[in-house]
Design a protein that fits this description.
The complex is a heterodimer. By secondary structure, chain A is α+β, with helices and mostly antiparallel strands. Helix content of chain A is about 35%, strand content about 35%. Chain A is built from four helices and eight strands, in the order E-H-E-E-H-E-E-E-H-E-E-H. In chain A, a hairpin with a 2-residue loop joins strand 7 and strand 8 (about 130-135). In chain A, helix 2 runs antiparallel to helix 3 (about 105-120) and helix 3 (about 105-120) crosses helix 4 (about 140-145). The radius of gyration of chain A is 16 Å and the shape is globular. Chain A starts with a strand and ends in a 5-residue tail after the last helix. By secondary structure, chain B is an alpha+beta fold. Chain B has a single domain (about 1-80), classed as Ubiquitin-like (UB roll). Chain B contains three helices and five strands; from the N terminus they run E-H-E-H-H-E-E-E. In chain B, strand 3 (about 55-60) and strand 4 form a beta hairpin.
């Protein structure tokens, strides 16, 4: 399942919903990303972060990434939630949950989902601080991280 | 008619989020669309000045610069993504 939303999410409730009435799941790995207040190169504090996205394509990309994770690992359930709109330091941005019978698949799939999401979901961060506003530059490290899952 | 979409700083520079255009006959690829857009005024020239920093999607799927736009209904231009 994937969701793009402006509102917050409750990690506990999302896990509960994912495993409702199921007893075959043995491992649940959860990753959540939050807004930091010190991301700017100029050292200034971030007071607000706005996530712009491409409505339609974001959902399509997240669904494609999730489907790919299911073809690579024996997952029993998964969830990706991405928030868009204006967020503040400390706010949740993204949630990934991977559930499987054993932990290896869940750990790896959660990591894969995050790496792919960061380099292919059409979302762009804009930071605001005392120095003004600016678009966040793409991080080389994120793109390198995603290449480790290549199968060719 | 082809719908063009712009996001993040590409949108800031073009000054618009979306427009419907009739692409000229001789346009085959994403790179051709970018080259044509750059002739449409200083704001486009500025937005696409660093064309290596621009990513594109055709009908909501990531596309390479040499991808064909022959059957494209919607072409989007944006910087490398920074979500998550």
């Amino acid at each position: 399942m994937i969701r793009v939303q402006t509102g917050d999410f409750d990690i506990g409730k999302e896990i509960e919903r994912l495993r409702a009435d199921r007893t075959d799941i043995g491992a649940i790995v959860t990753f959540s990303g939050t807004v930091r207040d010190a991301q700017r190169d100029d050292g200034g504090a971030v007071t607000e972060m706005t996530l712009e996205h491409y409505p339609g394509m974001t959902e399509k990309e997240l669904a494609r990434i999730e489907e790919e994770a299911h073809t690579r690992w024996p997952l029993q359930a998964s969830l990706i939630v991405h928030r868009v709109g204006t967020l503040r330091p400390g706010d949740n941005i993204v949630l990934v949950i991977a559930a499987s019978a054993h932990r290896e698949a869940a750990f790896e799939a959660a990591s894969f989902l995050m790496d792919y999401l960061k380099t292919s979901a059409p979302n762009w961060k804009r930071e605001s601080g005392a120095e003004g506003e600016r678009w966040v530059d793409a991080n080389e490290k994120d793109y390198r991280a995603a290449t480790r899952w290549r199968e060719d | 008619m082809t719908r063009l979409l712009y996001f993040a700083w590409v949108k800031d520079k073009t000054g618009i989020a979306a427009e419907d255009v009739d692409l000229p006959e001789n346009i085959d690829t994403v790179a051709d669309v970018i080259a044509w857009l750059k002739t449409r005024g200083p704001q486009y020239e500025n937005a696409f000045a660093q064309s290596e920093a621009i990513r594109a999607a055709i009908d909501q799927t990531h596309a390479r610069i040499d991808a064909s736009v022959a059957s494209a209904k919607e072409i989007a231009f944006f910087p490398p993504v920074t979500g998550g």
